[in-house]
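A protein record pairs a chain with a discrete description of its three-dimensional fold. The shape at a given residue is found from the number at the same position. Here is what such a record looks like in full:
>
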Amino acid sequence: MPTRELLIDERPPAEGGAHGAPLLLVLHGWGMYKGHLFELTRGLDPRLSIVAAQAPVRMGPGAYRWFDFERTPSSGPIINDAEEEQSLATLLAFIDRLVSARAPEALYLLGHSQGATMALSVTLRRPARLAGCANVNGRLLKKRLAEVKDPDALGGLSFFCGHGVHNPIVPLALGRETRDHVQRLGAAVTYREYPIGHEITPEALSDVSAWLTDRLDARAAAR
């Protein structure tokens, strides 16, 4: 059963406390845990406060998910809607508490795989909360897209979208569709494809790191 509270790992910024610092919320993929993606993000921009949240559904030792799914040969995963709805509600409530407690100057999301799908859903639901969203090997759910009524809902919001060309779980076509959808909603998108499958690689992380640093630099220059 899903938990009501999300467990976290966190890293404060290199200088000063976490309160008010730009915040990156990291969401891991299916069958992983909070420490997996968190360990890979330790080298990101030192101005960031980083929080890695653990998905609420326990599958086994060190293995958690946001929602269950079934694989299909060509159309991508078919998800467990009830689990996804409950996890999204839990995640949105967690973000509200986190923002209230930390008052970050900017909030960014980074998700891999299923965590990226959750990050995209959060962004569609609460675009005003965010400064940017990085999606690696995730996809935008059609039911979340159908909820959007404003044709410019993501106007000016920054996105990073990276996808494996040989992805067997979330086919490349779905990654490209996600890019196209967020662009049509007004987002500024940085898009990359990698000669990989469903994993997250140093090259992808390096591109995410550069994207985040560019966002922080632009905010600093605008002050």
